[in-house]
Specification:
Layout lengths: L1 H6 L7 E4 L21 E7 L5 H5 L1 H13 L8 E4 L3 E4 L2 E11 L7 E8 L28 H22 L1 H10 L7 E5 L4 E9 L5 E5 L2 E5 L3 E3 L1
Antiparallel strand pairs: 1-2, 2-6, 3-4, 4-5, 5-6, 7-8, 7-11, 8-9, 9-10
Helix pairs in contact: 3-4, 3-5, 4-5
């Protein structure tokens, strides 16, 4: 992600950056992210000609692309998407997505879509996680090297980008919901200010999590989800 930010102003075309090893990996909200050698760590940086809000919706595109790339190596029924940006495998976290952008006008100057996948190893430094990390290989997936995985993911992401331009976010939203974990079930969303428990009804056109609570529907723009 740091390299993406460095080179973004000079780019003329979408560019993928892949790291064989990371020494300062990070996740959402500045959290540590461990990425042992052999796992997948890559970032797509490009200029999507969109607003910041539209750029944020790319996390759902990335999640679908990531799901489909993983499904080439393991039974897709074992995979699910956890709002807002994780992929679960047999209930454990196998992959995460991080978006960063920059821009001072109505449109972002550039967008970086970072992806981390536990292809072969489970990070040993992660303890007491709500969704314990798992690896593709550890859950019975076919062996996949990072370069091969990048080819799949890049193609799948390009497909999702084309769908967004052709059909708007509605189609992406529907595709994401078909792969969503715990849709229609009771889950908990924890924000910086409160904890909200309700039935996971949908995501709205802005990508907000919609829970049906005893007080009525709640649209939640950002939170950590537990179930």
């Amino acid at each position: 992600m740091a390299e993406a930010a460095r080179i973004a102003p000079t780019l003329e075309a979408p560019t993928w950056i892949i790291a064989d090893e990371q020494t300062s990996a990070r996740g959402r909200r500045g959290r540590d992210w461990a990425s042992p050698t052999g796992n997948f760590a890559a970032t797509l940086v490009y200029k999507p000609n969109c607003t910041a809000q539209q750029a944020g919706l790319r996390s759902f595109m990335a999640a679908i692309a990531l799901f489909e790339a993983l499904a080439m190596s393991i039974d897709r029924t074992k995979l699910s998407l956890k709002w807002p940006n994780d992929v679960l495998l047999n209930g454990g976290k196998v992959a995460g997505i991080l978006l960063e952008s920059a821009g001072s006008g109505p449109y972002v100057d550039w967008l970086a879509v970072g992806v981390g996948v536990n292809l072969t190893e489970v990070p040993q430094s992660v303890r007491d996680a709500a969704f314990p990390p798992v690896s593709l290989a550890g859950e019975g997936g076919r062996p996949t090297d990072p370069q091969t995985f990048l080819v799949r993911l890049a193609a799948d992401y390009a497909t999702q980008e084309a769908k967004l331009w052709e059909f708007d976010f509605g189609l992406i939203r529907d595709d994401w919901l078909r792969r969503a974990a715990r849709l229609g079930e009771v889950i908990t969303a924890r924000t910086a200010r409160e904890e909200i428990t309700g039935t996971f009804e949908t995501i709205d056109e802005d990508g907000n999590l919609v829970l049906i609570t005893p007080e009525g529907p709640r649209a939640i723009p950002a939170a950590d989800v537990y179930f």
